[in-house]
Design a protein that fits this description.
The structure holds two protein chains of two kinds.
Chain A (H helix, E strand, L loop, with lengths): L6 E12 L2 E12 L3 E5 L6 H9 L6 E6 L2 E2 L10 E4 L11 H11 L4 H14 L15 H13 L5 E5 L7 H18 L2 E6 L2 H7 L2 E6 L2 E6 L1 H6 L4 H6 L4 E11 L2 E6 L3 E5 L10 E6 L4 E4 L4 H8 L8 E11 L3 E8 L4 E7 L14 E6 L5 E3 L2
Parallel strand pairs in A: 3-8, 3-9, 6-7, 7-8
Antiparallel strand pairs in A: 1-2, 1-4, 4-5, 9-10, 11-12, 11-14, 12-13, 14-20, 15-19, 16-17, 16-19, 17-18
Helix pairs in contact in A: 2-3, 2-4, 3-4
Chain B lengths: L16 H24 L16 H8 L1 H34 L5 H8 L1 H4 L2 H14 L13 H24 L3 H9 L4 H29 L3 H6 L7 H11 L3 H25 L1 H7 L1
Helix pairs in contact in B: 2-12, 3-7, 3-9, 3-11, 7-9, 7-13, 8-9, 9-12, 12-13
The chains are: A alpha+beta, B mainly alpha.
Chain lengths: 376, 279
């Protein structure tokens, strides 16, 4: 992602209310030309409403949406330089693939020869060459989605909107389509705006992700920032799996900080957090960033001591639950204070999952750059 | 294998004797009278009671009966006109009820299907009084002399069209219409290219339903027809008053065949499921 890109969509203080329900609450954000932008959030958070307002199917109650420098307030959906791939794909069931893909061009009055050429081109792009005469009911869900994609791409829109594009596909196909969508986006260079509730989907495809919660943007960041530096508890919890502990900030200097968590112990960070001293904060710790050690704590203490003062970034507990997932094993561990913590451990060798079992007493440590301190 | 028949699975109804006889009896009860009527249209006897031999002469006689043919032409004309108008009004009503929210919608919805529920005899009397009150002219030239009957038929036909189309609309994916608009279609283009093809089977089924309903309607027609206009069912009724000759049988058979063919086409086009869903 280069920094010089111009915003293609500017959302300015947009709110949408349905009666008493506020679906979108004073959202402002810029979507840059050529990026793969993802709106991520739980169902009912307002992300689809936001997308439909960009497409023109809903009108903002307040605020302004500018696409490519043009205010869209009075522009109906059929006049906007954006196209949408619907959640149900909305492929026209009574038209074959060629007619479906060529529909927009026919409406626009494009010549027959050019339509044929561009339809062919679009079908090749989504790898549907040879399906020209198929009817939608003779195609699988994945193929219908490609028809919907081609039907939008053939219009050469400035922005392609995708509403939960992968939710109806099975896991294998979804993974493949995630990859193909990113590839396609790079190839055509069109701005993609996708709505999804699936964090894996968002993380794997997006240039930038806006996490939406209750109609507001909870955080807007590239995928790795979102995961490694969540801005608040909602994002930390929604994106990926996380352990959150309440605590008090006891030390906060430019190059180090410490939090006293009653449930977890003393947490040390090798960077400052710029929070008010003594404030109530939350510490977020990802399961994969916690190391497990067999009882006899010497090793854990030594490992933790490498980058933290004595007695910090250490915990003890008992394994209460275990689930073997093949590539990793998940452990539910009850800390000495009674709280549960989740730890994941990669199965680097075939016998790794045999190292720990139910009711084992274990020690844990984590590195000083792993915990995230959240102020809200 | 060892002289024992295979056990009957729970859903193999056709292999159960009592079930088969029950179905047979039902069919007999339903269709025996019609079959007798049709068979006796070929009976070479004036009395129509005892089988005397095969003949087609009553068909010939029926088709040479000018007033019978005129009644038939009238009926077909009325059915055709009533169908066209019912189709337009019915489809529009269905789309309106499906698409829009407005005050008293429930009331409008109920009122539209009222002609289906109200006994035909009441409708007939209502029309009789109405046309008398407004002093509807009865001495117009053909086909204007059929206007009163046609209007009455439209009234009870279009709710059926609206019902069938409404049922069809329920399965419409609104995202398809949005997709059309998203691709540049205007409201009208989206309707023409996406919604209309979707409801087409409903329109065809509704049209055939209206056509057959109008074609064989007796009660309402009887009350609304002027002194000089006569439709096929009314004509048959007046013939039967003298005696049930095989000519009546022949004429009725023609009507039955016509109705059956149209209904068959309707079911084919809509898919039996579609029809079943509407009721």
């Amino acid at each position: 992602m280069t920094e010089t890109k111009q915003p293609i969509i500017q959302i300015r203080n947009v709110s949408k209310r349905f009666g008493k329900v506020t679906a979108v609450d004073n959202v402002s954000l810029d979507i840059l030309a050529g990026e793969f932008f993802v709106l991520l959030g739980p169902s009912g958070c307002g992300k689809t409403t936001l997308l439909r307002m960009i497409a023109g199917f809903e009108m903002p109650t307040e605020g302004q949406i500018i696409i490519d420098g043009q205010d869209m307030s009075l522009v109906p959906p059929n006049k906007r330089p954006v196209n949408m791939v619907f959640q149900s794909y909305a492929v026209f069931p009574h038209m074959n693939v060629t007619d479906n893909v060529g529909y927009g061009l026919r409406i626009a009055g494009v010549g027959k020869a050019e339509i044929r050429e561009r339809v062919q081109e679009a079908l090749e792009l989504v790898k549907l060459g040879g399906f020209e005469d198929r009817m939608p009911d003779q195609m699988s869900g994945g193929q219908r989605q490609r028809v919907a994609l081609a039907r939008s791409l053939v219009m050469r829109p400035k922005v392609l909107l995708l509403d939960e594009p992968l939710s109806a596909l099975d896991a294998k196909l979804r993974a493949q389509m995630q990859f193909e969508l990113s590839e396609l986006q790079e190839k055509v260079g069109i701005t993609f705006v996708t709505v999804t509730h699936d964090q894996d989907e968002a993380l794997s495809m997006a240039c930038r992700i806006a996490v939406v919660n209750k109609g507001e943007i909870a955080q807007l960041a590239p995928p790795s920032d979102l995961y490694e530096y969540p801005a608040n508890r909602f994002v930390a919890d929604f994106v990926g799996s996380v352990n959150i502990f309440e605590g008090k900030l006891t030390l906060d200097e430019p190059d180090r900080a410490a939090v006293e968590c009653p449930g977890l112990g003393k947490v040390y960070l090798n960077h400052g957090v710029t929070g008010p001293h003594g404030a109530d904060v939350w510490v977020a710790l990802r399961p994969e960033k916690i190391y497990l050690h067999v009882p006899g704590e010497g090793k854990a203490i030594r490992a933790a001591a490498q980058d933290a003062p004595e007695g910090h970034n250490l915990a003890r507990g008992t394994i209460k639950g275990m689930s073997y997932l093949g590539d990793i094993t998940l452990y539910e561990i009850q800390l000495e204070g009674g709280q549960m913590i989740r730890v994941s451990r990669p199965n680097l060798s075939r016998h790794d999952q045999e190292d720990f079992t139910w009711d084992d007493k274990v020690s844990m440590h984590w590195r000083a750059d792993s915990p995230v301190v959240l102020l809200s | 294998m060892f002289g024992r028949s295979a056990p009957i699975a729970p859903l193999e109804y056709t292999r159960k004797l009592w079930m088969r006889s029950w179905v047979g009896l039902t069919l007999l009860f339903l269709y025996a009278p019609l079959l007798v009527l049709m068979i006796f249209s070929f009976n070479d006897s004036k009395r129509n009671v005892v089988w005397k031999g095969f003949t087609l002469k009553y068909y010939e006689k029926a088709l040479n009966n000018d007033s019978l043919v005129e009644a038939m032409v009238n009926s077909l004309t009325i059915a055709f006109l009533a169908t066209i108008v019912s189709l337009v009004i019915g489809a529009l009503a269905a789309v309106m009820l499906w698409r829009f929210r407005f005050p008293l919608k429930g009331l409008v919805e109920g009122t539209i299907s009222l002609p289906i529920i109200v006994p035909e005899i009441c409708l007939g009397v209502a029309f009789l009084i109405f046309f008398a009150k407004v002093d509807w002219p009865t001495d117009l030239a053909w086909p204007l002399n059929l206007s009163a009957i046609t209007i009455a038929h439209i009234t009870f036909c279009f709710p059926f069209v609206a019902m069938v189309v409404r049922a069809r609309l329920a399965s419409f994916n609104k995202e398809e219409e949005e997709a059309a608009k998203d691709l540049g279609a205007t409201e009208w283009q989206a309707f023409r290219d996406v919604l209309l093809p979707h409801i087409k089977p409903g329109l065809i089924a509704g049209a055939l339903l209206a056509f057959t309903l109008s074609l064989d309607d007796f009660v309402i027609t009887f009350f609304t027809s002027g002194p000089d206009t006569i439709t096929f069912p009314v004509k048959v009724y007046s013939m039967v008053r003298f005696s049930v000759t095989p000519e009546v049988n022949a004429a009725s058979t023609i009507l039955i065949v016509l109705t059956v063919i149209l209904t068959f086409i309707a079911l084919k086009l809509q898919g039996v499921k579609g029809i079943a869903q509407t009721h």
